[in-house]
């Protein structure tokens, strides 16, 4: 059964609600959502899917949320709209029914199952914020964060594939590309074409703007790209790439440009890395040898690629924070269930006070990390500054993911140390959270700079 129909409705309604809240009061929000609902065309199959998605939820939790909803329009960060709850439930089902049975094999083979990628597209999870006219769901940024977190509870490799495609590739095109580029590529990126984001290089990791990949114009005004990118997520399966290149080193970061590049333009996928974690997620070197790109494929203004990279990575960091929260939650739930089943000294391990204290500490860390992530997401949706909050969310969530996944192994003893338990995968997957899309020290530097500026203001 496809869950695409209820998810499309859920994300569209969530987006409408967010737009209404930005433009008016809670009363105007209700008025704007009601017509949207009345205009929905519910077919028998989509109605059944909608009913199934709703029945999958925790009715008691939803009832409690509704009972305590603030009449003043301000709720806790954990409060989700009905549409966002529907989306979460639908993704949970997809993750358990489709992803979970394939996790072990993908981990052993270090390869993403093509059926997983196909399923993500079919369920509408690869175009969450994309305009419906371009084949997307027209959802909110928070909707994307919900999807990333839920997928990570089952497999962080699948989560990051979805994350990069949505928060980096799609968002660059939505925010900065010309209408012609959007119309050319976004329907494909919504339907079946995986995207990749090419920024890092052998000599430019944290110092991203020290890139050596070059771009120059030919006599017709088209661009020629030469160079190599490293550690590029989704690159083995991708057919579309956002590529950053330097046109004039003397201009420094102001010489950087961003391009929409198709694999068939001549992109070469080279060495695939053998990694500690997220093994099913492809990470490769990507080479460009006299790759000719039409002048129309320049994204944004010439020389403004650095601005695109900086702004887009802020959103990406919230996505990585969501991935790490989901990872921590997945490890936590698996280990705590085992601790309640495993008996020592004639009683469940979870009944020992020392174990309970550790579980309580981990639960608190996860809750705090989730609050940071969703706060950053909501701030972004409201159009308010969120750079500091995004850095905090990514930094803290990556620390929590490592801590909780490590503790989860210990709670399960010898079984936790076996790959069969699935817990070592969570732990090894967690380490990347402190590295990609800005290392932990880069996040600390960002937080310090912005926090200090606030004191001087």
From TrEMBL:
Q: Which cofactor does it need?
A: FAD
Describe the location of the Acyl-CoA dehydrogenase/oxidase C-terminal domain by residue ranges: 303-449
Q: Which residues form the signal peptide?
A: none
Question: Pfam families recorded for this chain?
Answer: Acyl-CoA_dh_1, Acyl-CoA_dh_M, Acyl-CoA_dh_N
Molecular function (GO) terms for this protein are:
flavin adenine dinucleotide binding; short-chain 2-methyl fatty acyl-CoA dehydrogenase activity
Which biological processes are named by the entry's GO terms? carboxylic acid catabolic process; fatty acid metabolic process
Pathway assignment reads:
Lipid metabolism; mitochondrial fatty acid beta-oxidation; Amino-acid degradation; L-isoleucine degradation
Q: What Enzyme Commission number(s) does the record list for this chain?
A: 1.3.8.5
| Location in or out of the cell | Mitochondrion matrix
> Cross-referenced InterPro entries, in alphabetical order?
Acyl-CoA_DH_CS, Acyl-CoA_Oxase/DH_mid-dom, Acyl-CoA_Oxase/DH_mid-dom_sf, AcylCo_DH-like_C, AcylCo_DH/oxidase_C, AcylCoA_DH/ox_N, AcylCoA_DH/ox_N_sf, AcylCoA_DH/oxidase_NM_dom_sf
Sorted alphabetically, the keyword list is: Acetylation, FAD, Fatty acid metabolism, Flavoprotein, Lipid metabolism, Mitochondrion, Oxidoreductase, Phosphoprotein, Transit peptide
- Family to which the UniProt record says this protein belongs: Belongs to the acyl-CoA dehydrogenase family.
Complexes and interactors: Homotetramer.
For this entry, the protein name equals Short/branched chain specific acyl-CoA dehydrogenase, mitochondrial
The organism of origin for this protein? Ceraceosorus guamensis
Task: Recall the taxonomic lineage recorded for the source organism.
Answer: Eukaryota, Fungi, Dikarya, Basidiomycota, Ustilaginomycotina
